[in-house]
Amino acid sequence: MIPAFNLHVWLLSFLVCAFPLAGSAQTLADRLGYASGTKIIIIHADDLGETHAVNAAAIKALQSGAVNSASLMVPCPWFPEIADYAKSHPDADFGLHLTLTSERVYYRWGPVAPADKVPSLVDENGYFHHDWDHQEHVNPKDVEIELRAQIERALAMGVRPTHLDSHQYRLIMSGKELFDVMLRVAHEYKLPIFVTRDWFADHPYLQESLGTSDIVLDHTVTIEPEVAPEKWAEFYNTALRNLKPGVTEFVIHPGFDDEELRAATRERSTWGSAWRQRDYDFFTSEQFRELLAEQKIRLITWRELAGKAPPK
């Protein structure tokens, strides 16, 4: 028979081991070997493959070392160009920007899988829908077929992705069924997906579906349409100066404001050519580099996250 006092101690020890105290769980930064309180960021360029102007800006930004991660849109016309670059730069941190919509008016793209195999994803002209006004028409089986087709095309063209994310967050924020499709495919290909704790409150199914082995970032920052062009640098300066400890992904959209990109995005300014030029200008500026050093912010890539490589 266990004495009462010893029984209480045993029960307390059991509870602490079985149910760790709040705040005691190991964070992603802890697992990566960073000191408590370290501010870590990924500067992630979206939409590579969309146009040549986007590819050219992203490559130049990556080569400068300021932008350190990106993801590629496999269905887009300029994907072969960036796939060739990825194949010849195997150490670059490239993910796949899984794409199921074609949001521009005059510049369109469609599925990688045959259109008759994914009928719920295409409009009457065979392009992806501009938008998912009511996503109940989207068949999860079609989604899974298309996701696999995009990944397989990337692999066949020499891309070795480090992660997956979702164009316009469609697979993240359109309900549990579609998120689970993305997660299942990611697990099969042994690739992490871009998910952040910032989204859990509005989309609780994310946390419910994720397992203990899944990588979850702490925060994300992206600029929104309500930010005036003259306030662009101020927005990013404020975000970097107020960065919280942990791992944060800055989702940016670099591009060159040239004739090609202006034509492709001319129906509206949001995420258009001038928008993308402003992102490129800030994240390749000396101002940005100086701010990283001043705030003691560390850069990390998805390659390091997935491989849990020790910090530099």
Question: Could you explain how this protein is built, in words?
Answer:
With about 300 residues, the chain is α/β, with parallel strands linked by helices. It has a single domain, classed as Glycoside hydrolase/deacetylase (TIM Barrel). It contains 13 helices and 7 strands. It has helices at about 5-20, 30, 50-65, 80-90, 140-155, 170-175, 175-190, 205-210, 230-240, 260-265, 275-285, 285-295, 300-305; strands spanning about 40-50, 70, 95-100, 165, 220, 245-250, 295-300. Strands 1, 2, 3, 4, 5, 6 and 7 form a 7-stranded parallel beta sheet that branches. Strand 5, helix 9 (about 230-240) and strand 6 (about 245-250) form a beta-alpha-beta unit. Helix 3 packs parallel to helix 11 (about 275-285) and helix 5 packs parallel to helix 7.
Helix and strand arrangement:
Layout: H1 4-18, H2 28-31, E1 39-48, H3 52-64, E2 69-72, H4 79-88, E3 94-98, H5 140-156, E4 164-166, H6 170-173, H7 176-188, H8 205-209, E5 219-221, H9 232-241, E6 246-252, H10 259-264, H11 273-283, H12 286-294, E7 297-299, H13 302-307
Parallel strand pairs: 1-2, 1-6, 1-7, 2-3, 3-4, 5-6
What descriptive keywords fit this protein?
alpha/beta; disordered N terminus; TIM Barrel; single chain
Can you write the helix and strand succession as a string?
HHEHEHEHEHHHEHEHHHEH
Task: Count the beta strands.
Answer: 7
Portion in beta strands: 5-15%
Number of helices: 13
CATH architecture: Alpha-Beta Barrel
The N- and C-terminal alpha carbons lie at a distance of 54 Å
Give the CATH level 1 class: Alpha Beta
Indicate the multimeric state. single chain
Assign the CATH superfamily.
Glycoside hydrolase/deacetylase
Q: What structural class should be given to the helix and strand makeup?
A: alpha/beta
Largest sheet: 7 strands, parallel
Structurally, how many domains make up the residues? 1
Helix percent reads: 25-40%
Unreliable sequence segments:
1-24, 308-312
How confident overall, as mean pLDDT?
Answer: 91
Given the C-alpha coordinates, what overall shape results? Answer: globular
Radius of gyration: 21 Å
What is the CATH topology classification name? TIM Barrel
